[in-house]
Design a protein that fits this description.
Elements (H helix, E strand, L loop, with lengths): L2 E2 L10 H8 L12 H14 L3 E5 L2 H12 L5 E5 L3 H4 L4 H6 L2 E5 L8 H7 L10 E7 L12 H13 L3 E6 L2 H8 L3 H5 L4 E5 L10 E5 L1 H4 L2 H7 L8 H13 L4 H15 L5 E4 L6 E6 L5 H10 L2 E2 L1 E4 L2 E5 L6 H13 L3
Parallel strand pairs: 1-11, 3-4, 3-5, 5-6, 6-7
Antiparallel strand pairs: 2-8, 7-8, 9-10, 10-13, 12-13
Helix pairs in contact: 1-12, 2-12, 6-7, 13-15
């Protein structure tokens, strides 16, 4: 039995999801004739209270499209130093949109409205024009942390006062909604654009969606084409996302409970230096300086358990749909017995 906790992207479609996919009513989506894609886009737009939604093959492409919708070359985007758009999208912000990032030194991937105010460039021609604020919820490198919505409202006010766009990278927003008992509409009312992913916690094989109102979204499909993201009979994948919306959101709480139980067991180990607070499905922890990180990862691998290093001495485990109760029991027992 292989226990893969490297990411929640390692999930595979369940037989029920595959059955739904095979029954999908499909058409040519480039001609906007795929009924299942149209249904998914309409449903997600309604969910967030937005006018339009567009299906993408990846969250990175959805985020990169949002950056282009909000900015012009030479502009600057305010985001956290741990932001996915800066760290894990292959320099796409500069390559695709010609923008720079003003990185805020936040706390676990989150920052304050005051920090946003301080990061806005002066209105002088020799500064980059600040045009967008980007938020990530939950925060990946912050250990699946969930934003305080009141702080998001304060940042929204700063954006309005300074004519800035406001984008949410909601790759794991579904986890935040469950953990905080919040609604998608609540976020749709605040952000100009939101990307959400189906291939992480919701267990789909591929796919993300970008939502927004008509004015900001009218060029989105053209940009997706420029990025090579147009798809044909993609309803087979959209059907998986529809299935996930109906069946895989509420169960995210199970992943969160397992992650917290893993954290409690890790906290008992003398060679674990610290564990980030666990709110959702991500466990990030550090070993003591005198402990060989590679040796620890290998010991787990020898027991058919896979985790990853995030650099800077931090290790990560991510619980997910395919991480069963039986696997969880084996992992906890293995952690208890591990010696370095």
């Amino acid at each position: 039995m292989l226990i893969d906790l490297r990411s929640d992207t390692v999930t595979k479609p369940t037989p029920e999801m595959l059955g739904t996919m095979m029954k999908a009513n499909v058409g040519d989506d480039v001609f906007r004739e795929d009924a299942t894609v149209n249904e998914l886009e309409f449903r997600v737009a309604q969910l967030f209270g937005k006018e339009e939604a567009l299906f993408f093959p990846s969250g990175t492409m959805a985020n990169q499209t949002a950056l282009k919708l909000h900015t012009n070359p030479g502009d600057q985007v305010i985001c956290d130093k741990y932001a996915h758009i800066y760290n894990y999208e292959s320099g796409g912000a500069s390559f695709n949109s010609g923008v720079s990032c003003n990185l805020i030194d936040g706390k676990r991937g989150m920052f304050t409205a005051k920090q946003v105010e301080q990061a806005i460039n002066p209105n002088a021609y020799y500064y980059s024009k600040t045009s967008l604020v980007e938020v990530e919820n939950t925060t990946n490198k912050g250990g699946g942390a969930c934003w305080d919505f009141n702080e998001i409202l304060k940042i929204r006010k700063v954006c309005e006062e300074n004519n800035l766009g406001f984008h949410l990278d909601g790759a794991r927003l579904w986890n935040a909604l469950v953990a905080k008992n919040e609604t998608a509409k609540k976020y749709g009312d605040v952000f100009d654009t939101i990307s959400v992913c189906f291939s992480k916690g919701l267990g789909c094989p591929v796919g993300s969606i970008l939502v927004g109102n008509h004015k900001i979204m009218q060029e989105a499909i053209r940009i997706r084409k420029i990025f090579g993201g147009n798809m044909r009979q993609v309803g087979y994948l959209a059907a998986a996302a529809l299935y996930a919306l109906d069946n895989n959101i509420n169960r995210l709480d199970e992943d969160h409970k397992k992650a917290k139980e893993i954290g409690r067991e890790l906290s008992k180990l003398s060679f674990v230096k610290q564990i980030e607070p666990i709110e959702t499905n991500i466990v990030i922890f550090e070993l003591n300086p005198d402990v060989d990180e590679t040796q620890f990862v290998q010991k787990l691998k020898d027991n058919n358990i896979l985790i990853i290093s995030m650099g800077s001495g931090k290790l990560r485990m991510v619980t997910h749909l395919d991480y069963t109760n039986n696997m969880h029991e084996v992992l906890l027992n293995t952690i208890k017995k591990i010696k370095l």
